[in-house]
Amino acid sequence: MTQLSPNRLFHEKSPYLLQHAYNPVDWYPWGDEAFREAKRLDKPVFLSIGYSTCHWCHVMEHESFTDQDVADLMNEAFINIKVDREERPDIDSVYMAVSQMLTGGGGWPLTIIMTPDKKPFYSATYIPKENRFNVVGMLDLVPQITNYWENQRERLMDIGDNIAASLGSGSSGGIEDIPVSVLDTGFILLNERYDEEHGGFGDAPKFPSPHNLLFLLRYWKRTGKEKALNMVEKTLQKMVKGGVFDHVGYGFHRYSTDRKWLVPHFEKMLCDQAMLLMAYTETYQATGKEEYRETAEQIIAYVLRDLTSTYSGFYSAEDADSEGEEGKFYVWTVDELQNIAGDEGKEVLDYLGVKPEGNYLDETTKEKTGTNILHIIGDDPPENLEIIRNKLFEQREKRVRPLLDDKILTDWNGLMIAALSKAARAFQVSEYAEEAVRSADFILGNMWDGNELLHRYREGEAQIGGFLNDYAFTAWGLIELYQTTHEKRFLDAANRINEVMIALFAAPEGGFYFTSSEAEALLARRKELYDGAIPSGNSVAFMNLMRLSRLTGNTSLEEEATKLSRFFSSSILGAPHVYSMLLSGLDFAFGPSTEVVVSGNTDDVRGIISQLDQRYLPNTVVHRYSEELATSVGYIAGMKPSDDPLVYVCTGFVCNLPTGDLEKVWEQLGEK
Fold it and tell me: Among 569, 590, 611, where does a domain finish?
């Protein structure tokens, strides 16, 4: 067997690009060199976008990109470019929008064929090697594109010009003030999509979308509508019982391929752990039910064990595949399980839904594979569940693990800092705060110089100018961390990052572009609001602006938030349920929201803050008084330091008289 020479991806840092470094396809990384060569050779560009834990990306690589016949065709016809969507979400965002325009859909791997000046004329997702049913395969597609390029180029150029013009036209901004009734509409529309039987929203495939749950909790808090809370609880309970949760090693898989949360796509991503951790933590605060705390702490256990780097940041993801098969690391034959569990484990295996014939259907053939995805089918766990789980974990650790994507992404670390900080407050566990501080110090020390935030760190190298999500999510994490530690340096860092975000990303008419004003120019500079698998940068930025305004007394931040909501008003009013993170921010903006300042030098002060932390108070920000804080936050300036605990409850920066009586504090906060 001939040993292939590495291609240009060999020198990249992205684990996804490195997976393709020995393909016979002559891959280029995205950059000027590739497009110069395309112009020099008068060839179209074949752009392939994916990510390291993407199952169908692996399939297309195995079928086509490692195949010499396909590679020869591609190398002759195209300049070929590989992009890691997690490393370059700006490129992915633009060309995913192209895919939506050309095909009405999208996904990964994303295939775009374009002119040497980056104007796309063809789009597809996964493409098989050979024709399959009505799908053209690579062996036929490449010659077809070559024929069009040589004989009907004008038509292709027209398609590219039209797509570029459509992308560049931008969205038309609204001018309306958004009424509070938008929260009711958002709830009604989410309720219409709610799966009464299995929880979650919509049909298969089903994503957790934790920001939907965060909004519903706030809506329940505002209105008292039990249905909103019931939707949250049922969804969280059904997910953690399903196969989408890893019952052996903990953590959640990306999404479920069915309505029942049974069969997941098996990749585990840091961003999903963070958002789900927030949902379970806040639901624990709202209900006091230990089951939500237990799941939250299991998510944390997984992240700290398997996704925490030696640098103190958090890694990105674990693959769905191992040994060339999706889910192989996670599924079990009944013989394996019986051998490990023994006779005393039969009740546990029944509880975990184990069937002799298996319950895992192959996604392509829809036939049973003879293996089991563990999931919970009972209500009362057997007493020896934890003993058997530990045995299964020890045995599973001997298997070949899925690939770890060990790049550190600033935006996803921001989400995990926020989530751990919330958990530290809700559960009163200092270790969680310490882990959040370590990650924050890593990001601030390696990815931030006071004027620019970088996006990706791997093997000692911090690279790629930050995107909107990096700034917004990091600021969110630092705000939550300040609320947990009351260390002013985290509030100062959040405020500074927010300032730079406004300078580099804000549009005069309102809202934020995804890319910086100093970034590489792509086909279009886009603004995104849709809250998909994770929240959008604009939605999180809106919430940050509102909270920083309350924390600092800087009302110009609220004005920036108002501009954002007015610009996007027509979109929000048209379909509020797809902007659920933004709805949470609007819930804060509509109020009532409160600012609480706790003064004093005794243990009683820590006790008061602890009680505030454990309550579900989504629209409250908390300061611990210090003279340094009083010099920089206007509404605190008139407060006096005290030895005995005093609590100021303020609304709109107007404060009640201080009190040391906690019952009066709860009364002023509207809490029973």
Answer: 590
Q: Quick one: 75 and 111 in the same domain?
A: yes
* Boundaries of domain holding 74: 8-168
55 in Cβ contact with 268 (< 8 Å): no
CA angle 561, 567, 573 (to 5 degrees): 100
1 lies in some domain: no
CA gap 211, 376 in Å, rounded: 25
Percent of the residues in the chain that have a pLDDT greater than 70, as a whole number = 98
CA distance 510 to 562: 8
Residue 3 belongs to a domain:
no
> Interhelix angle for 430-446 vs 468-485, to 10°?
140
Instruction: Give the contacts of 599 (CB within 8 A, at least 6 positions apart).
Output: 605, 624, 625, 639, 640, 641, 642, 645, 646, 647, 648, 658
Longest Cα–Cα distance of the chain, Å, equals: 84
Q: Which residues 6+ apart lie within 8 Å of 191 measured at CB? A: 227, 231
Query: Is the separation of the CB atoms in 78 and 43 below 8 Å?
Result: yes
Amino acid code (one letter) for 187: F
Binned at pLDDT 50, 70 and 90, residue 1 comes out as very low
| Count of the separate structural domains present in the chain | 4
pLDDT, position 364: 63
Strand 317-318 vs strand 268-269: parallel, antiparallel, or unpaired? antiparallel
Kindly tell me the burial class for residue 621, based on how many C-beta atoms sit within 10 Å of its own C-beta (0-12, 13-18, 19 or more). buried
Pair (231, 353) in one structural domain: no
Dihedral sign, CA of 25, 26, 30, 35? negative
- State pTM to two decimals: 0.94
User: How far is residue 305 CA from its own chain's centroid?
Assistant: 20
Listed range (283-287, 371-375, 545-549, 603-607) with the worst mean pLDDT: 603-607
Query: Does residue 27 sit in the same domain as residue 65?
Result: yes
Q: Within this chain, do residues 160 and 14 fall inside the same structural domain, yes or no?
A: yes
Q: 448 and 558: one domain?
A: yes
How far, CA to CA in Å, does 164 sit from each of 93, 156, 158, 161, 363? 14, 12, 10, 5, 36
Co-location of 274 and 316 in the same domain: yes
